[in-house]
TrEMBL record:
Superkingdom to which the source organism belongs: Bacteria
Protein name: Lysine exporter LysO family protein
Keyword terms of this UniProt record: Membrane, Transmembrane, Transmembrane helix
Transmembrane segments: 6-29, 36-55, 61-83, 104-126, 138-154, 166-190, 202-226, 233-255, 275-297
Keyword Transmembrane in annotation: yes
Any Gene Ontology CC annotation: plasma membrane
Single Gene Ontology MF annotation: L-lysine efflux transmembrane transporter activity
Length: 299
């Protein structure tokens, strides 16, 4: 059980141990990581095309997506406002224009890649037996590169430990997402460990879909991808509306994306004081996504 988890987790550990000081090398790694994500998502689409009773399975994916999204979001949003009430955060406006349309299109592009793989697999009808092995091989390389990115993200252990609010927000998200996953698993009558794995994506939709798809199959992988994608899109819409009154809620609901994708929105709408909180919270959640997912998948 644990040997399989270690085999997949090892590239992430090795990557995290590698310091990179040249900006050009980091840019190259970032570019290749983005490309590998697109390749694996296209392979996910091909895997879906290889399923028997495709229409029924797509309905199941949508059911799983809706159940997990509602359950996890409800648990998150039931607790985060209490943190705002008990530990307020000062915010400020900075009226810069943000390319929200462009940011949303980046998310839509990933959906189109999965859909493209599905359409190609259905229309061409070629042998798809190689897809799972190819996905696993590329996944190992992707985890290695993600480990390097996390190590060289600019966050030191000291900076993380000094920002208590960022840590608390991350812990609240973890402590409410996992029960949400259990509730969804009970509703859907699936193994609790599958529900816990599905609840460990924290908004990182590309990696969540890839890891879950590799470990639990394309139905779960597709549901994990859509669940976390919906979280990010809702966060982009929710942050400008609530961050002035509920900054911890806005940052927490953004999940792992608070350190990168949704950070410009958080900074623009909440002010500079929200930035270190968001980065620390997002970094901790990003670091724990592969750890928790691989652990629960291996059980």
């Amino acid at each position: 059980m644990f040997s399989g988890m270690l085999f997949i987790f090892l590239p992430l550990i090795i990557g995290y141990l590698i310091p990179v000081h040249k900006t050009s090398v980091l840019e190259f790694i970032n570019t290749q990581t983005s490309r590998l994500v697109l390749v694996i998502l296209a392979l996910m689409g091909l895997s879906l095309a290889g399923l028997d009773n495709l229409g029924q399975n797509l309905s199941q994916i949508l059911l799983y997506t809706a159940t997990f999204f509602i359950s996890i979001s409800f648990c998150n949003l039931a607790a985060l406002p209490l943190l705002d009430k008990l530990w307020p955060t000062n915010t400020a406006h900075d009226h810069r224009q943000l390319p929200l349309g462009k940011m949303i299109m980046e998310s839509v592009k990933l959906v189109l890649v999965v859909a493209g793989g599905l359409i190609v697999g259905i229309t061409l009808g070629f042998d798809l037996s190689w897809v799972d092995q190819a996905s696993e091989t590329i996944l190992l390389l992707l985890l290695f590169l993600i480990g390097i990115q996390l190590r060289n993200s600019g966050m030191t252990l000291r900076q993380i430990l000094l920002n208590k609010k960022g840590i608390i927000i991350a812990l609240v998200i973890i402590g409410t997402s996992l029960p949400g996953g259990i509730i969804a698993a009970l509703i859907l009558d699936i193994p609790i460990t599958h529900g816990l794995a599905m609840a460990s994506g924290f908004g990182w939709y590309s990696l969540a879909g890839i890891l879950i798809g590799d470990g639990l199959g394309p139905i779960y992988g597709g549901a994990a991808f859509l669940n976390e994608l919906m979280r990010e899109l809702i966060a982009l819409s929710l942050i400008p509306l609530i961050i002035q009154r509920y900054p911890s809620t806005a940052i927490g609901y953004a999940g792992a994306t608070a350190m990168d994708f949704t950070l410009p929105v958080i900074q623009n709408c909440g002010g500079i004081k929200c930035v270190p909180i968001a980065i620390v919270s997002g970094f901790i959640l990003s670091l724990l996504v592969p750890v928790l997912m691989l652990f629960f998948i291996s059980l």
